[in-house]
Amino acid sequence: GFHSETEVIRFERLEINPKLSETTGFAVGEHAISILRRRKVDGKFSILDWDLFLEKYSEGLTPEHAKISTYDYLEDTLGL
């Protein structure tokens, strides 16, 4: 097995601009949560993960959820 840790580098609310809309397909003006995390596996940083969640589908999401498991929160708590 291996040991892994997750560090939340950035957790912020943003408004979808035209460039992000083109990349994501999200509507311009919608609000989203942007999360940047880096993961350390066996003491070495090995993964940089950037997620963008529409705010209307991720209500209540916190940096603590992002550190432990964003998807557990979205699936188990919000039922997505």
From TrEMBL:
Pfam families from the UniProt entry: UTRA
InterPro entries: Chorismate_lyase_/UTRA_dom_sf (IPR028978), UTRA (IPR011663)
Source species, domain of life: Bacteria
Start and end residues of each UbiC transcription regulator-associated domain: 1-79
GO biological process: regulation of DNA-templated transcription
Protein name: UTRA domain-containing protein
Alphabetized GO MF terms: DNA binding
